[in-house]
Write a structure and sequence with these properties.
heterodimer; A: about 110 residues; mainly beta; 7-stranded mixed β-sheet; about 55% strand; globular; B: about 110 residues; 6-stranded mixed β-sheet; 5-stranded antiparallel β-sheet; about 0% helix; about 60% strand
């Protein structure tokens, strides 16, 4: 299995809702990432988990809450989002450390209304 | 801080042309460089990964080169096809689990 699977593919949520994005990989990668991508922009790093521990938080607002329950799963919990948070959310995985390639999922298209 | 620049920002070519996409980076202390393809609204598909010790990688009609000392990489696409139309992103690995992206080249190949 050489894929990163993200669910759901599309999500529309109100500003008072709570929702979660899910990411799963079975490649044995011990580093997992959340990226946010706005239209016509490159992906921006949000969080890095290495060996199931949060190692990088790029000053992301607390309305985004990551969770890594095990070495194959990565969740992103969403609460009280703003319309400007609408974007494509990408999950990726790699071996931890330097020099390893990344595998990205197909993304979740999030719209906040 | 690593900065990655991709030129051109957009490119339109007729089918069958050979083309070159350029990527430059400011800090030559990199571990690897990865080229991705992204279709509109979709995720990133890895095309080629070049380690810092390598000069080039090939996959089918794609060839990527790396000149670490000058901070440059090129992606060569041979005999372009309409199905190659997408945005191509260059990303540099230069830290622990850190990837820096360029802004991409939007490619349109017309039949």
């Amino acid at each position: 299995d050489t894929e990163v699977t993200q669910t759901p593919k599309h999500l529309v949520m109100g500003m008072t809702n709570k929702k979660s994005l899910k990411c799963e990989q079975h490649m044995g990668h011990r580093a997992m990432y959340w990226y946010k991508q706005k239209a016509k922009k490159p992906p921006e790093l949000m969080f890095v988990y290495s060996y199931e521990k949060l190692s990088i938080n790029e000053s992301v607002p607390s309305r985004f809450s990551p969770e890594c329950p095990n070495s194959s799963l990565l969740n992103l919990h969403l609460h009280a989002l703003q319309p400007e948070d609408s974007a494509l959310y990408l999950c990726a995985s790699s071996r931890p450390g330097q020099g390893y390639g990344y595998t990205f999922g197909s993304g979740t298209r999030l719209t906040v209304v | 801080k690593q900065e990655v620049t991709q030129i051109p920002a957009a490119l339109s070519v007729p089918e069958g042309e050979n083309l070159v996409l350029n990527c430059s980076f400011t800090d030559s202390a990199i571990y690897n460089l990865q080229w991705f393809r992204q279709d509109p609204g979709k995720g990133l598909t890895s095309l080629l990964l070049i380690q810092s010790s390598q000069r080039e990688q090939t996959s089918g009609r794609l060839n990527a080169s790396l000149d670490k000392s000058s901070g440059r990489s090129t992606l060569y696409i041979a005999a372009s096809q309409p199905g190659d139309s997408a945005t191509y992103l260059c990303a540099v690995g230069s830290g622990y689990s850190t990837l820096t992206f360029g802004k991409g080249t939007m490619l349109l190949v017309s039949p």
